[in-house]
Specification:
- The structure is a homodimer.
- By secondary structure, chain A is an alpha/beta fold.
- Chain A has 13 helices and twelve strands.
- Chain A has a six-stranded mixed beta sheet, with helices on both faces.
- In chain A, helix 3 packs across helix 7.
- The longest helix of chain A is centred in the middle third of the chain and has 18 residues.
- Chain A starts with a strand and ends in a 5-residue tail after the last helix.
- At the A-B interface, helix 2, helix 11 and helix 13 of A face helix 2, helix 11 and helix 13 of B.
């Protein structure tokens, strides 16, 4: 049974927004990111190939700067800021905050990051670290800071909008912007350049920035490839929207995949997904735990729960729809590796079907 | 205060045995291993470079087949078996068991692996898996098996010797053999080929197979490089033997670095270490925990306690003897990544100076 429900009043996406990003925007983003973002390594695992009967290539964005693909979109967006902006603002307690912090410091752009005061202390500290040191490369930019708020009394969007207005800052959204989508698309572009064409490409889906960018790259570079978006069962807003054509939402999905707790698809990302993605599927949190444990044990990699969504999708399909997987060349994006030690310990040691 | 004590009667190593392995043996081993062992990736970390003030290159043998460098020496040794051997025998509860199991299966050689019945079930299962499937490549060899014994009533060396004699098997020692040393030396050789010359090379030391092979490779390829062996404080047998020139031993060192719990230096490895290694040092178990947590958090890598000995040595020197580290190009071997989820969780979450 779906977790997501239709938003009211019923909203059909504006299909014309799918044209806001074209493949050439991803090519341009790749030029912007050359020498700046890592060309992250692509690893394989005999254990995973044996389990699936396929040849699976995993693009490890866990090794990307700030530990996740989010740096790509943030840097691409901030490097194209309108001239009248005094800087940027982002609200996020996750990888987007760190991506914007590092990218803005590297570009010498002032950045305000709005984070809940109860976010993990290590994440706040890491974000401050990037703002202050620019990854030890550039030093701090005047006026850059982390602003914390009490989530019990404050709505972050309102606080963010007020600060942005007062200080003349441009808001950098976590996924729903053409420059973000184009930046995220460079990860799949690299994977296809290095090891494509693939028969299928499995991509995690939260707000859909990585998925929509990947789908555009794949459609242009390997039109015969099946592009699959994978969401957590408990946060199946994109899957249900995709299935029905009507916008669905899940309020605070209680999944362990914290990077995919976005409540609804984006205005830009969703029309692209509807047009260029072949299938959406969901996986249970237990399947994410199993996949995390598999990459821990057999690949010696630390990947966060959202980061294994694509792999969990391949493993599920290998069991339930083997004709889609056996003998195929399959690309997977492992999207990030930022997870607290205590949380990671609980996830790999605890239950699940490992 | 040293943990190791001189063995009685006092033993001075046979220096002539240092000539049992020459650089050309490592070159030959590399040819044997080409296309068989992985050329493991070398990763860097801005966080580690910032912490140390150096340029540190980490060779990730955690990505090697069976998850540790041990595969290199095992394959090299088994591929040079004398013609009259009916197969091989190894006793080990660790990475050596898995290395011998996979290498023998790949070479079509019968292997008996003697393991204590109380070894972690996953390790026994993994070793059986390699024997049975040869990494899903070759299938099982007739007569290959894991033999378990009760460590309370049985001395493994005696059991191993009896089975080897009865079945005509050659014993493959975990470190103290010229073919093993030559095989292990290929890891440093690759690192130096790809990124050398280095100012210093930090290598973990258990029985000294990896360290002695690395020292021979380094001496030949980059004679000006300082080669440092790093042991756990609680198992400082090689360090004390190195310092005094007299063989020291530690009975069952209680360190978390299970790969470095060897009681004493080898007959072959030690004379090489005395001749070609510039310094031995020890690090505390807490420093190993910190280093594991650092590579977990900042590099998203799973490395076992013994695997971070070299890195912990660099971090210690960066603090206490910065003149040896700052501004230098430093090579480090991360030797393996085989650690149980529960154990890993305890190590990265628990105490330590992270």
């Amino acid at each position: 049974m779906p977790s997501a429900t239709p938003v009211s009043p019923k909203i059909r996406p504006d299909e014309s927004l799918a044209d806001s990003v074209v493949f050439n925007d991803i090519v341009s983003a790749a030029a912007t990111l050359r020498g700046i973002a890592h060309r992250s390594p692509v690893l394989t695992s005999r254990a995973i190939d044996t389990l699936t009967g396929a040849s699976v290539m995993l693009k490890c964005e866990s090794f990307q700067r700030v530990g996740a693909f989010k740096f790509r979109g943030a840097y691409n967006a901030i490097s194209q800021l309108p001239g009248n902006a005094n800087g940027v603002l982002a609200y996020s307690s996750g990888n987007h905050a760190q991506g914007v912090a590092l990218a803005s410091a590297m570009l010498g752009v002032r950045a305000v990051i709005v984070m809940p005061a109860d976010a993990p202390a290590v994440k706040i500290a890491a974000t401050r670290g990037y703002l202050e040191a620019g990854g030890a490369q550039t030093g701090s930019v005047k006026g850059s800071e982390v602003v914390t708020f009490d989530p019990a009394t404050t709505v972050r969007e309102e606080l963010g909008a007020r600060i942005a207005e007062e200080r003349g800052l441009a808001i950098v959204p976590p996924y729903d912007h053409p420059h973000i989508i184009a930046g995220q698309g460079t990860a799949a572009m690299e994977l296809i350049e290095d090891h494509g064409p693939f028969d299928a490409l499995y991509v995690c889906c939260g707000g859909g920035g990585l998925l929509s960018g990947s789908a555009i790259a794949s459609r242009a570079m390997q039109p015969g490839c099946r592009v699959v978006g994978v969401e957590p069962e408990l946060g199946d807003d994109v899957t249900e929207s995709f299935r029905t054509g009507v916008l669905h939402a899940v309020h605070r999905p209680p999944t362990i995949a914290d990077g995919a707790r976005t409540p609804r698809p984006g205005r830009y990302t969703f029309p692209i997904i509807r047009r260029d993605v072949d299938a959406m599927m969901t996986v249970a949190d237990d399947e994410l735990r199993s996949a995390m444990r598999l990459v821990f044990e057999r690949m010696k990699l630390v990947v966060e729960p959202s980061g294994v969504l694509g792999l969990a999708g391949v493993l599920r399909d290998a069991k339930e729809r083997p004709e889609l997987v056996r003998g195929r060349r399959i690309g997977v994006l492992l999207s990030g590796g930022n997870v607290d030690p205590a949380e990671f310990s609980g996830l790999i040691s605890g239950g699940g079907r490992a």
